[in-house]
Design goal:
Helices cover 24% and strands 29% of the residues. The strands form 3 sheets. An 8-stranded mixed sheet has the order 1-2-3-6-7-8-9-10. Strands 11-12-13-14-15-16-17 form a 7-stranded mixed sheet. A two-stranded antiparallel ribbon has the order 4-5. The longest helix has 18 residues. The radius of gyration is 18 Å and the shape is globular. It starts with 6 loop residues before the first strand and ends with a strand. The N terminus is likely disordered. The structure holds zinc ion. The site of zinc ion has 6 residues, from helix 4.
Length: 304
């Protein structure tokens, strides 16, 4: 594989209230005819309890301190994948938009730093419909941010979030996710197209059903001949516990047991076939390799 890792200094983001830059670098990888760039939407600020409640504390602390991560608060980065090929400009997920968290929503600045305007985007492909992946689809006036784009989402994910019962069955902690997703998906329904696991959704882009984090979560294998990269979404949600103990249930997954089974299967696939991973919440722009480490795994960032 020809790795062309230009480190692009993307500059300061558009969040005047933030003390630190929303984003710093983008990573680029040339894969055959595909030009793949990770573009940052900023980061989230989340309580550690959301991920770690119920896990065995002693081995957990060991993993976290090894990775320099606090158990109290996590600040996962948000890396979207921008894929350019011929006349197509494809964005995987849409970011959080302005209304979710002050530390996120920098996507349009990151795209501008790449010379890409919102109306240049021809396709937006969703891994899932959580706020940090979907809510950037509408602007402050509820108009579509990517007016020219075909918006592609898995059939199961669409069905789940547009089901009027979801808001009452999803649980109190995620009820706002359900309301927010339904409203946004309905607003852009005219632009939507649906697909299923196993479909080649665009030439060279294969959808892999990876449920658990959400019911219809998808990962995407971008392939040109023998070269491939996997856009993993949140199926592998962090670089510490998800790699060291992928079998542990994560409170970030809506179905923690199914999420763990999916994570184990995906990590095995990526390590065995040596396919680089673009992870939405992984560090160093999200791009790296999955290596086996005894019975567990490690994330090796491409720029480390
Ligand atoms: Zn996410």
């Amino acid at each position: 594989m020809k790795l062309d890792r230009r480190q692009v200094l993307a500059g300061l983001g558009g969040c005047a209230a933030c003390a630190t830059p929303l984003y710093t670098v983008a990573q680029t990888l040339q894969l055959g005819s595909f030009d793949i760039t990770s573009v940052s939407d900023g980061h989230l600020v989340l309580p550690g309890s959301m991920f770690f409640d119920g896990l065995p504390q002693e081995p957990l602390q060991e993993i976290l301190s090894k990775n320099g991560v606090s158990a109290d608060q996590l600040k996962p980065p948000c890396n979207l994948t921008l894929l350019r090929q011929d006349d197509k400009i494809i964005l995987f997920d849409a970011g959080a938009g302005a209304g979710f968290m002050p530390s996120a929503g920098a996507l349009l600045d990151s795209l501008a730093a790449q010379g890409v305007a919102p109306e240049d985007i021809t396709h937006v492909v969703f891994t899932h419909a959580h706020p940090d992946h979907l809510w950037g689809i509408l602007d402050d006036f509820d108009d579509p941010v990517f007016p020219q784009a075909e918006l592609m989402i898995g059939q199961a994910e669409w069905t789940y979030w547009t089901d009027p019962d979801t808001v009452t069955t999803i649980g109190e902690a995620r009820a706002s996710f359900a309301v927010g997703a339904a409203r946004r998906l309905q607003a852009v329904e005219d632009q939507i197209s649906l697909f299923n696991s196993g479909d080649e959704i665009l030439p060279g882009i294969l959808a892999h059903g990876t449920p658990g984090h959400t019911p219809g979560h998808m990962a995407f294998e971008i392939r040109d001949g023998t070269q491939a990269v996997m856009v993993g979404g949140d199926a592998i949600g962090n670089h510490h516990v998800a790699f060291a103990r992928p079998d542990w249930p994560s409170g970030a997954d809506q179905d923690p047991d199914l999420g763990a089974a999916t994570r184990l299967r995906l990590l095995d696939h990526l390590a065995t076939d040596d396919i680089p991973l673009m992870g939405f919440h992984l560090p160093h722009g999200g791009l790296g390799r999955v290596t086996r480490d005894g019975a567990t795994y490690r994330f090796l960032p491409e720029d480390a």
